Amino acid sequence: MTGYGVSSRSRRVRFQASALAAVAAFGLSLLADAALAQSGSGGPSPELIAAAKAEGTLTYYHTTAIDPTAVWTAEFTKKYGIKTQNVRGPSYPLFERWLTEERVGQHMADVVQITDTVLIESAHKEGLVADYIPPSGSGIRPDMKKEGVWYTLFVNAMGIAWNSTKVTPEEEKLIREGGWNVLTDPRWKGRIATGTPASGGSSYSYVYMFLGGKRDQFGPDFVAKMAALKPQVYESKSPMYDRLAAGEHAIVDQASQSDMGGLYQKGAPIRWVFPKPTPANLTVQAISAKAPHPNAARLFQEWATSAEGQAAWFKVSGVASARPDTVDPRKAAKADWYREAWYADPEDLYINYLNDPGYTDPEKPIIGEWNQIFGR
Amino acid sequence: MSVSATAPALKADDRPIDYASMRRRRRGFVLPLVLGGLLCVLVLVPIVLMFVGSIRTGTFVDPRAQFSLRSLTTVYTTLPFLTSLAVTVGASLLVSFIASLVGIALAWLLARTDMPAKGLMENAVIAPLYLSPFVGALAWLILASPNAGLLNVLARDLFGATGPILNVTTATGIILVMALYNVPYAYMTVSAALKGMDPSMEEASYLNGAGTLSTALKVTFPVVRPSIISAFFFVFVLTCGTFSIPAALGGTQAMPFLAVDIYRSVATYPINYARAAAIGTLLFWISLIGVAFYRYASRIATRFVTVTARGYRMRLVKLRGWQLPAMLLIVAYVTLAIILPYLALLYVAFTSFTSSSILDATFTLANIQSVVGSVAVRQSIGNTLLVGILAPTLCVLLGVIIAYSIRRLRIRGAGALDYIAMFPIAVPGIVFGTGIFWTYLMTPAYGTIWILVIAFVASYIPFAYRMVDTSIIQIDKSLEEASAVCGASHWRTAWQVTFKLIRPGILSAWILVFIFSVREISAAILLASPSNKVLSVMSWDYLEFGNVQNAAIIGLLQTLILVAGVIVSRYVLRIRLSQAT
């Protein structure tokens, strides 16, 4: 996933050019947005930088893939000379461990990343999350932050992916034009795989659209038809993508841009579409209330929400940004999958569910319902 | 030597060295209390915390948690868990049966027949120990998943096979892969018994006209039967707690398995620590029954004194026409357990993505470069080496002290110590890891490399203790008595005679714990933090992100470390793992 065969320097140049082009293209409203972002990000104060440098290090609990995250945090280290200790874990176990450590006074993490905003807000209520408004945070889209608590690092849109060597051209046409209902087609019996919403984060948000937010449109009937195809169910989605690329499965759902893009770059015969509406999930981060390096944590949060930090994330992982003023440089250059005839950006992102009572219910009832339908 | 003298394990009679009075004079209560206290903290506290955890509704520090019997009741009385239990026990019995059968056959062939190249063969048979079972399962997934497994695709392309010829994502597949990686344990136990057995009994059988088969069945088999039983239950207990192989080969979809249920309880929503702990207690009881059988059998098995001042010569069975089939058996085993998995891992390590068609794959060095260039990987190599040296050293040291105190000093409470030291074998790594987590959460050891060292010492003390103990029992006391009669002091006898004689046992134990510590994954995942990441955790993390390439490279790196360690011990310390029991 690291590097797309373009030197970082030329990528940066291209990014700057494309960012400008994007701003021009998106018109006044975005310009205003971008201006807002610019005005807010006069950059971190020299005092904060000095205090953070004095602390010298930062511990980052994250759920994103190891190597891309390391490449990304290395940009932060390069800029400020502050080393980061990255600890990766699966979303829920990592979060529970952080909770436990905080509760007993073993303060290790400075910044915590998670794909479940409900959990981070409950931790905030418990007083475990620091209140801090990074100046750059003003540039983050309003529905992608909870001011002072968590800020979105990136947006993960999820669609349907297929292995082009395992489907016929007619089937490919069907997938590209059939919308979500294509997932219930009996032809996929024994050829399809999916991920359990119990693994949390993006899988939960994805299934929530079908059983919660858009229940009228899809609902249990839709899920039951999918379950009838006896898909292989993965606890973790990434191994599922690997098996899709290998040809174990012909088609999978919950396909995210970053993972599919990564496999595409490696030459895997993978294609993907974003049917409407497209469920999206936020990967967010918050500062631990008792962070052992509070200033480094603030500086990191500031950098992560800045146009520069978000663009740096783009370089390692092709996903939608939480800032309107950062655009994927590949897109502007019509590079990689953007040049493919089958590819289209998601048009109707489903993201406004974060405060739905059904979504925030700590019991997460749709997981039980999904388990029941899938007989698990 | 006609009949092996049985060492009266805990009987105190007719010995010139008055261990009893020495014990009274020097030890009293201090040593048993110190050892007992140490074992309690290392072993009992984490287990007790598991039991307490099963009746809490949340973690120990969750302000909303209360006491409740709900999880215990659910796990012990409802159908999904009881089904899981039945399948776990049934599958583990099958795994032990298959692994023991193959292990016995291989041990007999290599210890009692005129097979050629025995040294090489023996190294090949125990070589699967150098591959983490988790990475082995990953390799088999690449080789034999139904649609994209390399073997199945080859069969389809070359021979026009229509369906999968091998499918490891089924219950049968999981059982066979688990059996494959347990053969070395069965082999080592039975092989040690065969090598230690007095061949004059078989000689007598041949002299009286019995054939090879009837000698094997009527003399050899009954004598090594206790070690076969102990091997069987040892593999059974290990299998019951195995989490990585069934998890990697399709989770609970292919076959319900208690250890996988535990992982699901702590890693997927709704997170339920009480249920994980309750399943842990269920597994604990099952394993405890297995340990009781294992303990009983291994006590009988090791009652024979085999290290004496007298020498003997082994008579080998001539295989003649059977040599080829016997060779084929070994070659088949080695192909399945080592050659194919390593080819699969090497293939994946050099491809840009996992392609099921070898001909269409694009090869690259980028994965190797990214792994070698990764700071996290370099740190975890250092940590792995550190843990790999510290954990077995401390573990074996403790094992020697316990075994010597129990067997030779015969301290008070020896029976209880013996039991406690064997407990951790009954607790699956993933449960024991949780117990260790809670035990050390509020101590300075938390988050450092030391918590891993403590976890591994506690987890593997049964192996170290049992192996050293076995070596001590097998020492003919007359050797120590001779030293005492010649005027050597107690400690001089211990140092110059006892420890010298059990040195192979000590070093074999060290190597075994070294291998376990480098490969261990379940507890290490739970205890990982920035300063103590080890390679096994890295491979798990990579696999979780679908980066099979890097996970395979890390698995190969682990093998390199293990082989290097074993070569050092083989050629520098002149110790072979196959001498282990």
Automatic annotation (TrEMBL), chain B:
Residues 85-294, 381-572 form the ABC transmembrane type-1 domain. It is a multi-pass membrane protein. InterPro entries: MetI-like, MetI-like_sf. It holds the Pfam family BPD_transp_1. GO terms for biological process: transmembrane transport. The keyword Cell inner membrane applies. Keywords: Cell inner membrane, Cell membrane, Membrane, Transmembrane, Transmembrane helix, Transport. It comes from the Bacteria. The chain crosses the membrane at residues 29-52, 85-111, 123-145, 165-187, 228-249, 273-294, 324-350, 385-404, 416-441, 447-468, 506-528, 548-573. GO terms for cellular component: plasma membrane. The keyword DNA-binding does not apply. It is found in: Cell inner membrane; Cell membrane. PROSITE patterns: ABC_TM1. Belongs to the binding-protein-dependent transport system permease family. This is ABC transmembrane type-1 domain-containing protein. It comes from Microvirga vignae.
